[in-house]
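For reproducibility, we list the full input for the PBG complex.
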Amino acid sequence: MSYPDIRLSRMRSNKIFRTMVRENRLGVEDLIVPMFIHHGDNVRNEIASMPGQFQLSAENAAEYARELFDCGIGSVLLFGIPAKKDPTGSDSWDDKNGVIQHALRTIKKAVPEINLITDVCFCEYTDHGHCGVLIEKKHQMTLDHDATCENLALQVVSHAKAGADMVAPSGMIDGGVGAIRQALDEADFCNLPIMAYSAKYASSFYGPFRDAAQGSPQFGDRQSYQMDIANSDEALREVELDIQEGADIVMVKPALTYMDIIRRVKDTFGMPTAAYNVSGEYAMVKAAAEKGWLDEKKIVLEILTNLKRAGADLIITYHGLDVANWL
Ligand code: PBG
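The corresponding predicted structure, in tokenized form, follows.
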């Protein structure tokens, strides 16, 4: 009895066949690009630890949004850097003067076709840099999740009124997604979806972002509300709760060293799943590419394709404009 000659390379050695049997594809329609919106006019500050990324005032952000949309990017994710910070982060629900509200109106007017997703959190808006309201418990300041939920409700309704197409709560606040869903429904925004940062780890990969958004905690860290990097089962519990509370998309963040979590979340829930390719992951690639140690284009396309393979349906990435131009 003779066996056929098994050669797994047979399909690989022909480019057309290889492409035909490719299991995962990266498309520009999978990408969401973050933007840092600075208060004031004529602002365009390059972020030192994130080459190619800028803090932009609203009208400059509108120009960037136009460029992105014309390259095929359908959605952007907005972070605000307000003029004034206070203990509760009240700029974030200021209908009239809020930095994000102003940007939403400005970008909507200039690029009505693009989807505007707003980051919903307080760390960029509070003077202490934590993601909500603090209270003192046993001589220690801790996050008051219930009080923060009330302010989350104010923030999302204000964003919705200013033109947000989706809201993305990033604070890992207990009950936050439910409070947001209820507030939106009561304010007649039943069709506005929620992308929840469901499994968000207390990660050191956010370092450059904290320069960019000026939202570093002034004391302590975020270990009490973001997830322990060593945990995996807990991510599933977090995701399950967010789905029950009304999340339309669930997110895993960071992305690269958390691909196992992306796969578990996708397999367990079958929900639209987002991966956030965060600032530190971007900075590492940029730094190595600047030194000529890595081929930037090849590395970025490999990383983002691998995120699709891991189970991500959508990817939030600072590489978005480059990728759109390459694809
Ligand atoms: C919090 C928020 C953070 C990021 C997105 N939303 C920072 C944090 O939790 O400390 C990080 C994103 C990145 O690193 O690219 N509003």
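The longest strand covers residues 31-38. The mean pLDDT is 95. Both points were considered when choosing residues for closer inspection.
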